Structure formats: structure tokens, C-alpha cells
Amino acid sequence: MANAQVQAKRPLSPHLQIYKPIPTMVMSILHRITGAALYFGTLLVAWWLTAAASGPQYFDWVSGFFGSWFGRLVLFGYTFVLIHHALGGLRHLIWDTGRLMDKRSATAMAWATLAGSITLTLIIWIVGYAVR
């Protein structure tokens, strides 16, 4: 029988410790994370709607929570997640048409997704406070 102690010298499988994070990879991972986070944000919307249907006392309590500094921080995060996921979806929709797939354009779109989501989130909150 052959020597069982001999191990094959095979290359390592690619994993995250080998790859250098690039903008398109990071935005792809963030797109998945924001998609999962939207499930929790949707639960918050459902909670708010349930409170509105339950009566004024419970609705006032839930509105008080969302009006606190922690509630506003959660809503700010939900706004960012929603915008970022939507812009990432538009980026993927453009790629589905076969456009902007070269390395330079894909990297530029990744940075634009991040910049656009931050900018739009801030604009939404500034306008929201202005009309309040």
C-alpha cells in the first residue's frame, strides 16, 4: 500500500484573508447586508402601523420611542439602508444590461453608490426637519 502519510501539495482555496477588499466587493457585501437589514426595518414599519391601528395611547408611546434620540438613530440607519440598497439595486440593474462592466466604471459606480446613499440620506433628513 502507498505511504498514507504523504499529503498532496494543493493550493489553498480562495478566502477573504487572501483577497484585498476592493470597492465593488465591499459594495456587494454591503448590498447583501442592507437587504437583510431591511427585514428588520420593515418590522419597525409594521410595528408603527400596528400602533396606529391599536389606538392613540399606544401610538403615542411608539411615536415617543421613534422621537427619542435612539429611535431617530434607528430611523436614520433605516433610511440609509433603504437608500443604499435601492442604489445598489440600480447599479446591478445597469450591469444586467451589460453596461459599465469594465473595471474602472464598476469601481466608479461602487463609489457613486456609497456617496449617493450618504448624500440622499442626509438630504431626506434635512428636508424632513425643514418641513417639520
Account of the 3D structure:
The chain has helices at residues 23-54, 56-67, 69-96, 103-131. With 132 residues, the protein is mainly alpha-helical. It has a single domain, classed as 3 helical TM bundles of succinate and fumarate reductases. The protein is elongated and about 70 Å long.
Task: Describe what is shown at a glance.
By secondary structure, the chain is mainly alpha-helical. Helices cover 77% and strands 0% of the residues.
Low-confidence stretches: none
- Number of E-state strands: 0
The SS-based structural class is mainly alpha
Helix content: over 70%
CATH class (first level) name = Mainly Alpha
**How many structurally independent domains?**
1
CATH homologous group name: Fumarate reductase/succinate dehydrogenase, transmembrane subunit
Number of helices: 4
Main sheet characteristics: none
Shape annotation: elongated
Instruction: Work out the radius of gyration.
Output: 22 Å
Taken as a percent bin, the fraction of beta residues is under 5%
Instruction: Could you tell me the CATH topology label.
Output: 3 helical TM bundles of succinate and fumarate reductases
Q: Would you tell me the overall average pLDDT?
A: 90
